[in-house]
Amino acid sequence: MNTYQELKNAREYIDNLMTNILATKRASSPSHQAHEDLLDRLLAPSTDATTPKFTDAEILGETTRNNCNTLTFVALELSRNPSVQESLKKEIKHLLTVYPTLTQETLHHFTYLDQVLRETQRLHPIVGIALRTSTAEVEHDGYIFPAGTKVGLHLMAMHRDSRVFGKDATTWKPDRWSSPDAPHVNSVIAFGEGIHNCIGQKVALIEVKIILIQLLRRFTIHLVEDQKIEFVTKGLKVRLVEDA
Q1: How many Cβ atoms are within 10 Å of 144's Cβ, its own excluded?
Q2: Which is nearest to 89 in space by CA: 212, 216, 215, 174?
Q3: How many CB atoms lie within 10 A of CB 121?
Q4: Rounded to the nearest 5 degrees, what angle is found at the Cα of 24, between the Cα atoms of 23 and 26?
Q5: DSSP structure class, residue 141
Q6: 198 is in an annotated binding site
Q7: In the structure, what pLDDT confidence band is assigned to residue 204 with cuts at 50, 70 and 90?
Q8: Predicted confidence band at 47 (pLDDT cuts at 50, 70, 90)?
């Protein structure tokens, strides 16, 4: 069986598994749930109490698309920065001897992986602009914004502000997060903040971390040569070279 067929079969298995889980959740009564979990929130009806907030396709598709975009940019930057990739691979291989089972708790020990992901989300945020509405009158930098003003937060520009990230703000540099004058972690708001913080943030990060750990424990990522890189929806071509 070739790799493509194995991948296709795995995708079908996961899709069927998740579809069945969603169907079971939708059929169960919320009153019978001891604790509300992530799926309960996603499957809760909207304000009219009859229409679901999200369809099954939206729940499954949004997570997949956003994680794929993040992984694409990580692959791009690691292939462009082989020394960073090598340092990350060393951390992964070492920590897997200490923590062979990947759990939410053991993943916290992969600190350099955290830096790589945070720096990627800083330079390549999946959401370029976050839209908000002011709930009260606000004065900022001499401008007055009445309550109800629609405000767009340009994350791409904010994350490249040299006043926050230094003169090398446009450079992908994971080591900036371990330096003595490192920016505050909340200066990167790829998942939003406050009550509008992404509800699936922790799940998304766990998924991305596990995928990268499993890839980099065995492979080194190289860009396919002579390709014109365009930031569109067609993805990025890379080669996985199995380690000796």
Answers
A1: 9
A2: 216
A3: 21
A4: 65
A5: T
A6: yes
A7: confident
A8: low
Placement of tokens 């993943």 in the chain: 107
* Side-chain half-sphere exposure of 98, counting CA atoms within 13 A: 12
Residue type, 103: T
First to last CA, the chain: 24
Interatomic CA distance for residues 223 and 215, integer angstroms? 15
Tokens of 165: 């990230």
What 3-state DSSP class applies to 40?
helix
Nearest Cα to Cα of residue 238 among 88, 41, 111, 78: 78
Q: Which residues pair with 239 in a beta bridge?
A: 222
**Domains of the chain in sequence order:** 39-217 (1.10.630.10)
Residue 37 bridge partners (DSSP): none
pTM of this structure? 0.74
C-alpha to C-alpha distances, 21 to 52, 164, 211, nearest whole angstrom: 16, 43, 22
Q: At 130, give phi and psi (nearest 5°).
A: -105, 125
pLDDT tier, 88 (very low <50, low <70, confident <90, very high otherwise): very high
Q: Give 25: exposed, middle or buried? Use CB within 10 Å, 0-12, 13-18, 19+.
A: middle
CB 175 within 8 A of CB 168: no
3-class DSSP state of 46: coil
Q: Position of tokens 């996603």?
A: 42
